[in-house]
What we know:
The chain is α+β, with helices and mostly antiparallel strands. It is 34% helix and 24% strand. It has helices at 48-65, 108-126, 135-145, 149-154, 163-171, 181-184, 199-205, 242-249, 308-315, 325-330, 370-396, 413-423, 435-447, 454-458, 475-491, and strands spanning 4-10, 14-20, 26-33, 45-46, 73-80, 86-89, 99-100, 158-161, 178-180, 190-191, 196-197, 214-216, 219-224, 235-241, 258-262, 266-273, 284-291, 294-303, 340-342, 360-362, 402-406, 426-430, 463-467. The protein has a 7-stranded mixed beta sheet, with helices on both faces. The relative contact order is 0.13.
Amino acid sequence: MPDYILSLDQGTTSSRAIVFDRQGSIIAISQKEFEQIYPKPGWVEHNPIEIWSTQVSVATEAIVKAGLKPNDIHAIGITNQRETTLVWDKETGLPLYHAIVWQDRRTSDYCDSIRKEYGELIQKKTGLIIDSYFSASKVRWILEHVHGARERALRGELLFGTVDSWLIWKLSGGKCHVTDVSNASRTMLFDINTLQWDKELLTLFGIPEAMLPEVRSSSEVYCETAGDFLFSKIPIAGIAGDQQAALFGQMCTKVGMVKNTYGTGCFMLMNIGKSPKISSNNLLTTIAWKINGEVTYALEGGIFIGGAVVQWLRDELGLIKNSAEVEELAAKVANTEGVYMVPAFAGLGAPHWDQHARGTITGITRGTNSGHFARAALESIAFQTMDVLKAMEADAAASISELRVDGGATANNLLMQFQADIMKCRVIRPRVTEVTALGAAYLAGLATGFWASVEEIAKQWQIDHIFEPKDLDDYDSLVDGWCRAVKAAKANVNL
């Protein structure tokens, strides 16, 4: 039996592939960034062909770097940026339009217009708050704005999918149009109670059901790769949206366990068990995964701009040459001297859900320098995470004492310590921080017998470092200053 799992991790700014062994250790990794397209303010797009080409390229490279052959790969797991929306021609496989990214705000006005009448209905069925973040309004936009698209969709000529569906369709040579329950639950078209595409919502958004992928569990053999991919047929056996995959990779398999992923955005999820619970504090209810016929649900708080604020310091302001330099720059000052940065570049996500908020910096003085900007940027990630954690504690009616963390920014010790301090809870970083890709690998391995059980996998999870919270003398003033900065961002005072 082949001894390795290949995980394809298609993210917002890069495509990655990681080869894991039976111990859940990384054997090889490959990554390529791709172009971010901004046609208008608030619009964010990707080229679907570039998503595909970079993903195939890194998959091949990871296998070569590991010193393996394709037939050494037991199965493939896929995890993906979730709400990003693609529509393509069923026959030619050509995209009808660029992928509209989850960060995109072009449908904000439409979402505002239906919120009062349909907000309660949509939240009850989907667990989501009406927002342009989700896929439904993006599909509607494509069908309305691309010439002939709606007519072609009605004739059954077009397919819709999130990135997982697109990759599997391409990997299978156009034979398999599927998604899993975790990704389906992010479209605002899927009833998380009945586990079915909802006809009422499809009618509301004007989306023909024939476009939609078949919804399957998160861990099963869906199909094999076509022989033209790596010249080998490999089972595709695990799918999960990136945040759900990270929750599983962190082994948050018991009710009440919480993780936060620090990527382009930040996403905190809490396992809430086998029944959906609608949040009273502006969080989302989502499907975490479906394994062996059992569905697990989660509460989620999504932050639109997390690590992307560091990229902004690098690419737009030129304060650093690479993202790793931000910790050193921030450490040059003892604190921000009252500077707060609210990176609401795409509005504010949970728990505020203000799509009209804009990025705001407050407290600048003549003595403010690049170190203060760097530190304020890092602290903004921690403050936003604090806001979500407080909402989650209110929904759970309990204090959260432990947060498992993953993602690129967790390598930043200054950020992780401040995170523990401002939230007053332990922050635990695992030894393997690539838990999004690892979660997808675990799902694929469970489906194919590579690993026998969740219990076997749980024994592999190991701690790298625990950040214990320290008392901050100015805690109340720090939190108050952040709240005032958020209020300013919501007021859009930086006109």
